[in-house]
Each structure stands twice: as C-alpha cells, then as structure tokens.
C-alpha cells in the first residue's frame, strides 16, 4: 500500500471496485450515500443524482456546488446470438484498441455473470484484415454459454442489461501509484466526500451542495438536473484529466503529470472556467503550499460544461486528478495527487463566503 493504509485508501478501493456504468449508478449511489451519511441532508433528483447539503456558519451563506459524476464507461446488451454470445452498445467513449480480451461483468436479473470481450481470432484473418483495428460492432461478449436458450432462460440475460468493466484495486511498484477501475470519476467522488467531511468538521461560511451526478459519460445529463435542483451560486467540479509524462505524449498536449499535484483546469472543450475563480484557486494553492499544476483538455469536457449554463449562469471551475488510461478497463492515479486535490478543494470552499462569491459573480 502507499505511505500508509488509511481510511482514504480503503474508500478509494471501495469506490473503484463498485460497479456503476452510465444509467446503472444505483450501486455507487448507495456507496456514496453511505460515505456521506451524517454530513448533511441527503436528497436525489429525478434522474438519480444524489446530493448532500450542509449549511455552514451563516444561514444566508452562498450555495456552493461540488460535483463529481458517479458513472463509469461501460456497455449494454443489445442482442443475443443463437450461439449464446452478447452483442453490445458502448456507454460512453471507448477506443477499440483497449477493449479486446478484457473481462467484464454482466448484470443479469438472476445475478452477475463474468464475461470476456472477444472477436474473430487473428489466426484466421487475412494479412490485410490483421492490419486493421477491430470495430466495436464486430466484437461480442462471451459469458460461457451453450446457446441462446441457456443465456436467456437459465442465466437470465436480456437486452438492456448493463455490463461493467472488471478490475481489482492494487498498489503498484511505487506504492503511491494506484491501479483501479473507473478512476474517471470514482476518484472525484472520493475526493468530494473526504473534503466534505473535513469541511463539516472544521467549519465553512456557505451552504455546501455536494452532488454525485449520473450519466456524465453520455452527455453531462445529471449535471443539468442536479444544478436545476440545487440552484448553486458557484460550482466546483471534481473530475480526472489525461495525464502526460509518458512516451509519445508532449507537454503541449497533456501537461499534467502523475505526482505533480492537483490539476487546475484552465480550459476544456465544454468550459472556459470563470477567471476569478480560477485565479482564486491558484492563489489559494500558493498560499496554502498545496502542490498544483495547470491542465487543459482540448478533446473532452466535464459536468462543468452544463452546470455553468444553468439559471442565469454559474461561475464554475474544474479541479482535476491526472489519470493514465482513462476510458479503459484499468487506469492509474497517484495518491499524493489525490491528497493535494482534497486539500485544495477544502481550502477553496472555505474561501467562498458571501462577499467572495458576490465578487466572483460580479
């Protein structure tokens, strides 16, 4: 384990291994609800996002939204062949080269079933076919069944069932490097929950609305419904960002590195952050001696892309955790980056009193 096995790591393991693809967030919702129990008033919107609200020192304190999406990329059963194989729909963005040969869990009515993503083997492909990436439409999931009847009647699988990637949590060579499933965005959920716990204990000047959103991976949908429900005055989104510092990835493409600290996102494809809020985050990190780096994403977005457009507009900033291999079965984060993100989120929320929020909104 990293420097020490503590409560934070235990929760990171539970969050990572929980199964909850887009549209099937009920298990991770239950886990997040368990984590924040006793930290405020818990409620849900009609789409399934879960929020915990805690009022700080002043009853008239500004409503500060902290958002982290609960869903992970996965799949859904769309068709069962007569031979007993499952054809599937991707839920979220998948790159074919990370899919083949990976284990999955099919969530059937009669219970969870292990499966593996397969395709026609290379041994029987032509030389020309072997040069091409296998398309998702040509893949299938093998759950070890004889035929259609066994899949449907005995195992209870049907179209519409959800399918989750499978990966166990593990510390790597350097124990601060953590391998796991769904760091995008279970790491964000863990950061949000831990920061909320600290803020409730130490005090804050506002009304915190911490929300685990649903269906981020297919269009930031829970961000819309939860923001409509909570009506925040300022929003802080916690998510992951593509980590650089590896072969073939230059700093002008992905500047954030594992171990470099919390990434303050200056731009993504869905959001140009509020500049006053961005500058406050940088000043706060410098003042509190929190290790930070600046990041951008030209090809992806976060829940902030929808939250900042709600109502009359919501000043929004994204704090990101650098992550390797997002949108695959297993990815890597750095434990010290996790700790620095918790610190900055906590310190930033403490800054957001009524006067500061009015200045930011002004």
Structural description of this entry:
By secondary structure, the chain is an alpha+beta fold. It has two domains: 7-72 and 181-361, Aminopeptidase, CATH 3.40.630; 74-165, Beta Barrel (Elongation Factor Tu (Ef-tu), domain 3), CATH 2.40.30.40. 29% of the residues lie in helices and 27% in strands. It has ten helices and 17 strands. It has an eight-stranded mixed beta sheet, sandwiched between helices. It has a six-stranded antiparallel beta sheet with strand order 5-4-9-6-7-8. The protein has a three-stranded antiparallel beta sheet with strand order 10-11-17. The mean pLDDT is 95.
> How many structurally independent domains?
2
Q: What is the tally of helical segments?
A: 10
Reported for the largest beta sheet, the result is: 8 strands, mixed
CATH A-level architecture of the largest domain? 3-Layer(aba) Sandwich
Strand content: 25-35%
Unreliable sequence segments? none
Q: What is the strand tally?
A: 17
Average pLDDT works out at 95
List keywords for this structure.
362 residues, Aminopeptidase, 8-stranded mixed β-sheet, Elongation Factor Tu (Ef-tu), domain 3, alpha+beta, 6-stranded antiparallel β-sheet, 10 helices
Write the layout of secondary structure elements.
Layout: H1 7-17, H2 26-36, E1 41-44, E2 50-55, E3 63-69, E4 74-80, E5 86-91, E6 103-108, E7 111-118, H3 127-130, E8 140-142, H4 148-154, E9 162-165, E10 170-171, E11 177-180, H5 183-202, E12 207-213, H6 221-230, E13 234-242, E14 262-268, H7 275-287, E15 292-297, H8 304-307, E16 316-323, E17 331-334, H9 335-351, H10 354-361
Parallel strand pairs: 3-12, 3-13, 13-16, 14-15
Antiparallel strand pairs: 1-2, 2-12, 4-5, 4-9, 6-7, 6-9, 7-8, 10-11, 11-17, 14-16
